[in-house]
Amino acid sequence: MMILPLLAALGLAHAASIDHDKVRPLPQTIPEGAQGELYLAYQPRLNVVNGCVPYPAVDAEGNTGAGLKPTGPTNSSCTTSEGQIYVRSRTDEDSTRTALMYAWYFPKDAASPGSGHRHDWEGTIVWVSSPTSTAPENVEAVCPSAHGRWPCSTGDEFSLDGSHPLIEYVSRWPMNHQMDVTQEVGVLQPLVAWESLDEGVRTPLAETDFGSAHLSLRDGNFAEDLDSATY
């Protein structure tokens, strides 16, 4: 009997779009050993300058957040959440250079009341020289997302707290939100690795329509976005 596929299908069938503040964060879910240690070592510390704080995008049942209309103050109804951060990686075939793509979900993106859009995905790509080192000097470049681009900072152009890149989420009016490097020490969210997600969680997340928000972790976007983060 095909019991496991049937259960997975039933789980996907019951997944729904629910209120953004009803999506419960997943516990830290990362590979054991060196890969998980790599993800943790270079997880960015996020400082939210304005707008929403990050929220979980999907829960353990595969339910995804419905987001918020961009009405009222830019951070209305989205200031209290433990958040979640997602990560996916790729190591170059011809070297040990490795890209760690971290991503956060926000229920809305508004530069001012009434502007912007429902849902926002932003991220940071951290390029490291070796996938087996967790030293600060292993970081080659930090590339925060900004309006469809991934501009990279190298050398003394970015700051670290230990081995954690310092990143801010900010809107500089009239532009919508973006990520940028900063010297402010932000906070960490529970970390979830793309490859560690159950199918009943990863599939709804990958297939949800987030409108104009760009989910870089998806198979169709991941490689293209990494290739555009050059330095």
From TrEMBL:
Keywords: Signal, Virulence
Keyword Chaperone: no
Signal peptide start and end residues: 1-15
Pfam families xrefs: NPP1
InterPro entries named among the record's database cross-references: NPP1
Family designation: Belongs to the Necrosis inducing protein (NPP1) family.
Name of protein: Putative NPP1 domain protein
Species, as recorded: Aspergillus taichungensis
